[in-house]
Amino acid sequence: MYSSNTHDRVGHYLVTPLVKDDGAGGFLASVSLRRGAHDRVYRFAQAFSSPARAVRYAIQQGRQLALAP
Q1: Contact 27, 50 (CB under 8 A)
Q2: Is 33 exposed, middle or buried (0-12, 13-18, 19+ CB in 10 A)?
Q3: Which end of the chain is flanked by fewer CB atoms within 10 Å, N or C?
């Protein structure tokens, strides 16, 4: 699992993307949403061709999740 140095603060949440090599040449995206001592990790099924694309997707999804009511 690759942890990116990239993170984003959205409201009370810290959004941190995570990327994992899927073993078949692709990369899987996850995102951590942290608020205080609580941390939720969401994994996404779509595989990406590069770690940078997986990070971008994870950040976008994390922002939407953090802003959802």
Answers
A1: yes
A2: buried
A3: C
Identify the H or E element spanning 16: strand 13-21
Residue 9 makes CB contacts below 8 A (sequence gap 6+) with 15
Residue with the bigger pLDDT between 54 and 4: it is 54
- Nearest Cα residue to 55 out of 27, 22, 24: 27
> Could you tell me the CA-to-CA distances from 33 to 29, 30, 51, 67 in Å, in that order?
13, 10, 19, 11
pTM exceeds cut of 0.85: yes
Contact partners, residue 63, CB within 8 Å, separation at least 6: 8, 10, 15
